[in-house]
Amino acid sequence: xxxxxxxxxxLLQGFGMGAGLIMAIGAQNAHVLRxxxxxxxxxxxxxxxxxxxxxxxAAGVAGMGxxxxxxxxxxxxxxxxxxxxxxxxxLAAARRALHPAAALTAGPQAGxxxxxxxxxxxxxxxxxxxxxxxLDTVVLLGALGGQQPPGLQGWFAAGAxxxxxxxxxxxxxxxxxxAPWFARPQAWRALDALVAAVMGALALTLALAPLGPxxxxxxxxxxxxxxxx
Length: 229
What we know:
mainly alpha, transmembrane, L-lysine exporter family protein LysE/ArgO, LeuE-type, cell membrane, transmembrane helix
């Protein structure tokens, strides 16, 4: 069907796999959502997340993902570092959920806005200091993209990068539509409780499920993997 357009299948596969991994609730998405609800430096936050993801995806497809897979030390660092980061982020969300005084209000009136430098530092910290992000983008997407035929790997990376771009733009800019609901402190507590539960589950999954060179590759071997999301 795509004999004359061989770049379409890897582009769609990259888009599907990228969307499935990036759209899951995580520390980065939770930060973008909270920023969008407060309407503080939304464009800067979204742009930083997109830039980090695109660079990580490109690095993974270019070969860094395979390098990490072959190194037990790097895999162990990513595994335990990711579990620790997710657990810490989940505990912080649980603390906010249990203390209503720490709840935020949605909208531009939600407290003094941080400086651009502070906002940039916050989003880079939640992105670059999160080893789980590297597992998704560099290792998993890198392993899948690296198995594409020569000359088509870039299309897989482009598909995954497109999914990341569309998702973060929609999440950051669309968060204001939820502002009326998040005008209630109970809504913030519910969001933080959900984030805490998901972060805790991800941390446990990462800690209890051993990582190995075959793990990411086996997911690409399944015929339904690219369309699962």
